[in-house]
Amino acid sequence: MDEHRDRFGGVGPICRTLTEHDCKIAPCTYDAHHKRQATPSARTVRDAGLKELISEIFEANYRVYGARKVWRELNRQGQAVARCTVEHLMRELGITGVVRGRRVVTTLPGGQAGQPPDLLDRNFATCAPNRCWVADFTHIKTWAGVVYVAFVVDTFSRRVVGWSAATVKETVFVLDALEMALWQRDREQHPVQPGELIHHSDAGS
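RE: above sequence
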């Protein structure tokens, strides 16, 4: 309308022409819109400032923060704002946090074999190295996916003597950690003596 108002003699004639073509726009509606653009409301100004802060927080935290964490960070910075407002502004910005995936299950009982007895009876104190090793494995979420990590700890020094990482939960991945522990002790001139070591896991010994 701003481009053609002089040609058509003002806003009124343009609005009447648009109304004849089933596009009803009242002159007062145009005037109100024009006024809002010229002098934005306090809320519009505040939202623009909040959008800048939200974008900064989102980028500073590796683009993983969702609305809840962004809202908490804003409040820590002294910006009193409702969580629903943060959610609304993030939708307008087109940004979302990383959604956690399904819970990763590391152990699936097979039931096909009996569980070995617990030879330690929860007593992990030892008087020398290579008497008791405890083993387990866990998972770590990375950008590339889930990585499983197996480890073996000597309870005498509480040192990780062997470890292994893999993207799948297979027997060889756990055995690699044990093989590394045995190799490590051999290299350090402290080989495991037959009959002295108990290798314990949460599934038995």
